[in-house]
Amino acid sequence: MSGLSLWYTRNTSSGTSYCNNGWIGMNSNKQADIQKENEFNFKPGQIAFHPGITNSHSCIRFTVPSAGFYDVQGVFFSSGPATNLNGDATTDVHLSINNVELRSLWINQNTGILVFPQIYLNMGDYVQFEIGWGKNNNYNYDSTAANITITGYY
To answer: Which top-level group of life is the source organism from (predicted)?
Structure first.
């Protein structure tokens, strides 16, 4: 798929190749959306998560470059194509700092927001967003788009 950058580990089982640990993707196109059949529609520059087949969480981690106050915000949504605008994603989203979960939410063909304004972080701390299966206990059609913003005031 032109313009879709993916980060994943690939395994093969019984001749079938799959991303058992999930994946992180980004639409690197400057102006064009990326669509996959009835599963997703990603805007230019948008990132996306997909959990693994055994509920392995896909994650993005930010390492804090210097101590100070940070605004942390993540907007997560099931991003379907024009034929199914709400998509089919049913995932669980988690926000952790240094392996301590601050909040989680469910995406069930909808949108969820995690916001932590002016949180103090030390250099080397890490902020992690994760996506898992969700309430339906499977990974099918669980591509979840995200707009994540981390702003430092130091």
So the answer is: Eukaryota
Q: Give dist(CA 28, CA 94) in Å, integer.
A: 25
Which CATH number does the domain 4-153 belong to among 2.40.160, 3.40.50, 1.20.140, 2.60.120?
2.60.120
pLDDT tens, residue by residue, 50-95: 898 888 899 999 999 999 999 999 999 887 765 666 677 889 999 9
Give Cα 68 distance to the centre of its chain.
25
SS3 per residue for 92-107: EEEEEECCEEEEEEEE
- Between the alpha carbon of residue 14 and those of residues 18, 21, 32, 133, the distances in Å are 11, 17, 37, 23
| Tokens found for residue 49 | 């998560």
Domain ranges of the chain: 4-153
Q: Which residues pair with 11 in a beta bridge?
A: 18
